[in-house]
Amino acid sequence: MNTANPFYPIGTPGKPWGDAERAEWLSRQTRQRSYESEVVSKIERLRDRFDVEEYGCLEYGDERFPLLAIRSPDWNDDLPVVLVTGGVHGYETSGVHGALQFVDQHAAEYASRVNLMVAPCISPWGYERIHRWNPNAVDPNRSFYEHSPAQESAALMQLVAPIRDRALLHIDLHETTDTDETEFRPALAARDGKPFTPGGIPDGFYLVDDSENPQPEFQQAVIAAVEKVTHIAPADADGNLIGSPAVARGVIQYPLKQLGLCASVTNATYKTTTEVYPDSPRATPEQCNEAQAVAVCAAIDYALAHL
């Protein structure tokens, strides 16, 4: 969609969608890749080194998606817990594959020091459709609250409930893409009957801290590590990143719990949301995955060093 035309092709400007508009939107979504072959198969290959559990199952029409989590094989209740999540927005590819790369290449380094829980693809329907929402046109990453309207969010909250107060760190892996501006924000405005105001997409990696419990030194430690892999997004002329003030280089803040964001699901001291920019001419898919894995390692290293 051309951002010069703020009217999305579904619905009536100024009027929120009803059932008919949601059905029309759903009818336009097509399966473009396989959760089973691209994600589940990779998780299955980790079973000889890690514990894998099915923590839920999404059923949409005749489609069934097992929700899988990877855990440390020798869980020790005396150790701190680290939660890594990816694919809350299914289209954000490096969030999924960066989480899996971390497990495959780096998780063993933290054995005997932390308990790891990794949910690499929270929204498999969105992964297959390369979409931000679930089939009900609901954004799982605005739905982490009691009586959630998103099955994806509710399932993760149930998984995490036993470790909510014991987690030391939660890092949630995301991307900001050009399609945020050309498709997903216009769709959101249309769905909610609001005007769409074009914005900009930061060119590079950045982080989202929790404005209710900011950890600036922690965020900068992650930025410093990732900068060795890919470039950090500069603030715009107004000192903003994606419309929010840059509180430090490559860092903005959101009230995570108030917005129902995934990074609010625990009471961890250290929380962050990564934002990789895969559409940059300066970044390859391999760099994007590596940036996510490096961010996880840097986050764990900092948290353990500051226990």
Automatic annotation (TrEMBL):
SUPFAM superfamilies (alphabetical)? Zn-dependent exopeptidases
Instruction: Please cite one Gene Ontology biological process associated with this protein.
Output: proteolysis
User: Which residue range or ranges hold the Peptidase M14 domain?
Assistant: 31-307
The Swiss-Prot or TrEMBL record lists the needed cofactor(s) as:
Zn(2+)
What Gene3D superfamilies does its record include? Zn peptidases (3.40.630.10)
- Taxonomically, the superkingdom here is Bacteria
Any single Pfam family the record assigns to this protein: AstE_AspA_cat
| Key words of the record | Carboxypeptidase, Hydrolase, Metal-binding, Protease, Zinc
Q: Which GO terms describe its molecular function?
A: hydrolase activity, acting on ester bonds; metallocarboxypeptidase activity; zinc ion binding
Family named by the database record: Belongs to the peptidase M14 family.
What is the name attached to this protein's record?
Zinc carboxypeptidase
Q: Which organism is it from?
A: Microbulbifer aggregans
Which taxonomic lineage is given here? Bacteria, Pseudomonadati, Pseudomonadota, Gammaproteobacteria, Cellvibrionales
